[in-house]
Amino acid sequence: MLDTSSIGSADAPLDVARCRVVHARRVLDAAVLRRLRTHLARVAPEQQATATSERERRAIARGESADALRLDPVWFDAFRAPSQALRDAIGDATWVVYPPQVRSVRCDAHHVPWHQDVGYQRLLGPRGHGRHVTCFVPLDEDPASRPTIEFACALRPELAHVARDGFGAGLADPPGGVRARFALELGDALVFGDLVPHRTYVPDPAVRERSSLEFRLVRPCDAVAGKDYFDVLAGAFTRRVPSVEVA
């Protein structure tokens, strides 16, 4: 197992930065994450039952969440009073996309194939982001034994994606590059660029479930006009106001 704290350079050019993976250790308040885990267990059954659209039902089948669960602003408690270590890990990507992804994964049914997160942004059309960072936050007390993420680390461009295995975007062939996996603790996060190929990895076949939050973060200059974000530095929700053309 490759278990380094960082792959890539924080001061690298844009294309290299988008291929960077960081195991950010103890950057989040474990007590806050425990509270969010308890909240998820309490409200998920009822809120998942509110799913009425086919889109939401497909998301739940993939281990994701109904809109009612994702839209709960409580998940952003993870970013209130951010530690300096967290701010260092996310760099200038200080706006968190609303809503986040809330996952309850069972690896026998929710094994995400190799993909780059940029492939999913392309599916969103003009609502997608041209560049972003993902922050993966496990909620379980023992995340090292739970289904997690495996990365293929190498400098690479955006790759072609196709729909596969019930997911909207995946790579047709396994990517090359060094494989990286990280032994996580509660309070850790994985922060990685949108060009890093990754997939579900199961370190212990006897432990097949996990709960996690996945946040997309952007630089303020990369925000989509009219979309909602949580500003980590200000500790408040914000949005980029659409520009007005003057005739």
What does this structure look like?
- With 247 residues, this protein is of the alpha+beta class.
- The protein has a single domain (6-232), classed as Sandwich (Jelly Rolls), CATH 2.60.120.620.
- Helix content is 20%, strand content 26%.
- The protein has six helices and 14 strands.
- The protein has helices at 14-17, 30-48, 54-61, 67-70, 84-90, 117-123; strands at 6-7, 21-24, 95-97, 101-106, 133-138, 148-153, 162-164, 167-170, 178-180, 189-193, 198-201, 209-218, 228-231, 236-239.
- Strands 1, 2, 3, 4, 5, 10, 12, 13 and 14 form a nine-stranded antiparallel sheet that branches.
Number of strands: 14
User: Can you write the helix and strand succession as a string?
Assistant: EHEHHHHEEHEEEEEEEEEE
**CATH architecture, please?**
Sandwich
The rounded distance between the terminal residues' Cα atoms is 60 Å
Mean pLDDT over all positions:
88
Name the descriptors.
247 residues, alpha+beta, Jelly Rolls, nine-stranded antiparallel β-sheet, three-stranded antiparallel β-sheet, 14 strands, globular, disordered N terminus
Brief write-up:
This protein has one domain: Sandwich (Jelly Rolls). Helices cover 20% and strands 26% of the residues. The chain contains six helices and 14 strands.
Summarize the SSE layout with pairings.
Layout: E1 6-7, H1 14-17, E2 21-24, H2 30-48, H3 54-61, H4 67-70, H5 84-90, E3 95-97, E4 101-106, H6 117-123, E5 133-138, E6 148-153, E7 162-164, E8 167-170, E9 178-180, E10 189-193, E11 198-201, E12 209-218, E13 228-231, E14 236-239
Antiparallel strand pairs: 1-2, 2-10, 3-12, 3-13, 4-12, 5-10, 5-12, 6-9, 6-11, 7-8, 13-14
